[in-house]
Amino acid sequence: MRKWFIGFLWTLLAVVVIGAAVCFWAISEGKIGYMPPIEDLQNPINRYATQVYSSDGKLLGTWSISRENRVMVNYSEIAPSLIQALVATEDARFYEHSGIDFYALGRAIIKRGVMGQKAAGGGSTITQQLAKQLFSETAHSTMERALQKPIEWVIAVKLEKNYTKDEIITMYLNYFDFLHNAVGIKTAANTYFSKEPSELTITESATLVGLCKNPSYFNPVRYPERSLERRNVVLGQMLKADYLTQEEYDSCCQVPLNLNFHVADHNDGEATYFRDFLAHYMMAKKPVRSDYPDGYYVKYYMDSLYWEQDPLYGWCNKNVNRNGEHYNIYTDGLKVYTTIDSRMQQYAEQACYDHIVKYLQPEFNKAMRNKPNAPYSRNLTQAEIQRILQRNVRQSERYRVMKNSGSSDEEIRRAFATPVPMTIFTYHGEVDTTMTPMDSIRYYKSFLRTGFFSMEPQTGAVKAYVGGLNFRHFAYDMATQGRRQVGSTIKPFLYSLAMENGMTPCDEVPNVQETYMVNGKPWTPRNGSRARYGEMVSLKWGLQQSNNWISAYLMMHRLTPEGFVTLLHNYGIRNPEIHPAPSLCLGPCEISVAEMASAYTAFINHGIRSAPLYVTKIVDNEGNTLAEFKPRMNEVISGDAADKMLYMLRAVVDGGTAGRLRFRYNITAPLGGKTGTTTNNSDGWFMGVAPRLVSACWVGGDDRDIHFDSMTYGQGASMALPIFGLYMKSIYADSTLPYSQDDQFDLPPGFDPCSTEDDMRIVDGAPGEADEIIEQIFE
């Protein structure tokens, strides 16, 4: 019997061993569970993530399936103390095993599984933890987790086979989520200590490694005492592993956390709106009308134009990789080299932040304080405000979830009127509070929005792109996605049409208010000033003072609305809802910030408009250049007309509505510009032109009914112009940039703005390139 029993045990052991071997072989071959292809294991991060670079060689961020803005660092860029703390705490025999530490595994099984000692430590190695992060889905039960373990073991062994220990450590730290948008050690070091990973001290390294056990539980921001205790445990492990002396350990344990915490905001995330825009732009599919919901005709129209005109738009779906599949920025590991300059991007974001957050938003809050309509205009009734808010309720995620779950309208109404705990955004950090969902909608509506776009007119290269002040909470992009009424910034286009029709900046017209009959109805344009009323004034003066009566006179007596619309199309303004009408000369049409910047390049470029150029080249993960992109230009007006417009735009800065650029920002460089303010101060605009840069800026509320009630802060010169002033001041102060206050506009020798040319073209409704392309799209 004893002999039989021993034989049975040996047989059982053999069956278990053979069964385990067969099981692991099946896992390795992908016959059980999911086993990533070997090429994925050889490059588990970089194969997927597309890297986006600035024109000055800085990594702006990455595109990956998880959509995290993880920025990689090399092993040499990580503080040695961080490596030591990780190994000592998470895997003391890391340099001795080949992916699985059988000693630690056996200890965990006996002490934790059999003896129930929870503090006995786990059996997962750093390599296994990396395998879990890279390739395992979240387990929803103990059984699922048990089944995942063998798969992770096999993956860990393969990772060890394909990578050095240093590479595995680096991947682990680059991949780990340290909370607060701090994905990867580079972002974590910056978020918690405002440092680079190479600059971390021993105690700071120990604090971050302490998070690896459980980031939420040992969160140093929410639970500093708990985090400090965990940090000291890590220091103890470093002492045990001989990475620290007893004296160093005792000294480090006395050091407080010393956090220098700040969640990644507009200053930390590099060009967040731009990267999101570019991802959608490159991944766009060929527009099909049936794919667009009702009411999205303009979107379909614009996308169709981009598809036909811009090789970058939909590039991934216009080209195929070596496997014959369309490119995917989230899985093909491309390198995209953009025209954005990281320094200029920082200056643009800082200018928007400094003006709006530090100055304009507090003034708006003060103006709205104790007003029953806040943040909406005093011109609205309570019924009108409720209709607007109800529209926003129906667009909210809470409403959608409740509606899909079968909640009645009354239940939804009560839910939106019931106070609940929530975390809200402020410019000083997130705040825990209690308020009703309806009040939270109103609260977020109170934040002013902005869009800023700066490009080189000679090449079309976009150097700075700001779609808003906080991408996480206000993701709607006001640089390219949003369109708002442009007000008086449209007037230079009208004046350029007048220049094309034989007029000059010195020509005089009557400065009087007239009433015109339009479709049988009277139209009487209003003006903000009665200066020089009844006099004959030059066109230069009319644009300089942004006089509405002069614009109306040109449109009604010298030009035609049809010719103006055609010219706008040739300037790159594509909105199909811009219809010929006399009032168009005052800017009631909606145009994006990017379109306005591109249109104004024609004034610097002798009548040649440059389309925005976002990317110079795309490279695959083996270094092969897949595509290169060149400037795209079209002639809009003659060189002589453009030079005359430049002369008038400079007068706006040197003696008109943009004069504060000189006396407030002390910029002496040659500049031109145009302010714009729409009805009720709903939109504030400024267009700024320098010899080598054209910039467009818009500031306003999320809804048109959210605005300043007075012109003091509500006009374009107060809302938008300061952003351009701060931006250009920073640009000119940076000697590493190729822009100088000594730069001059390229005007012909002996240029006379008051001369006329006999061979000047007459633009009066003749179809241009844009109209021809539009006809092709809608045939």
Layout of helices and strands:
Elements lengths: L1 H27 L9 H5 L7 E4 L5 E5 L16 H11 L11 H13 L11 H10 L6 H21 L2 H11 L9 H9 L8 H9 L13 H17 L5 H8 L18 H12 L13 H13 L5 H4 L16 E4 L3 H27 L13 H13 L2 H8 L4 H8 L3 E5 L6 E5 L1 H9 L3 E7 L6 E5 L17 E2 L5 H10 L7 E3 L5 E3 L2 E3 L12 E3 H6 L3 H11 L2 H10 L19 E2 L1 H12 L3 E3 L4 E5 L5 E4 L4 E3 L3 H17 L4 H4 L8 E6 L5 E8 L2 E8 L10 H4 L1 H4 L1 H13 L35 H9 L2
Parallel strand pairs: 1-3
Antiparallel strand pairs: 1-2, 3-15, 4-5, 6-7, 6-20, 8-13, 9-12, 10-11, 14-17, 15-16, 18-19, 19-20
Helix pairs in contact: 3-9, 3-10, 5-6, 5-7, 9-10, 10-11, 15-29, 20-22, 20-25
Pfam family, one: Transpeptidase
Family: In the N-terminal section; belongs to the glycosyltransferase 51 family. In the C-terminal section; belongs to the transpeptidase family.
InterPro entries: Beta-lactam/transpept-like, Glyco_trans_51, Glycosyltr_51/Transpeptidase, Lysozyme-like_dom_sf, PBP_transglycosylase, PCN-bd_Tpept
What does this protein look like?
The chain is of the alpha+beta class and 779 residues long. 43% of the residues lie in helices and 11% in strands. Among the domains are: 70-253, Penicillin binding protein transpeptidase fold (Orthogonal Bundle); 272-338, no CATH class. Helix 3 packs across helix 10 (224-240) and helix 15 (342-368) packs antiparallel against helix 29. It is elongated, with a radius of gyration of 32 Å.
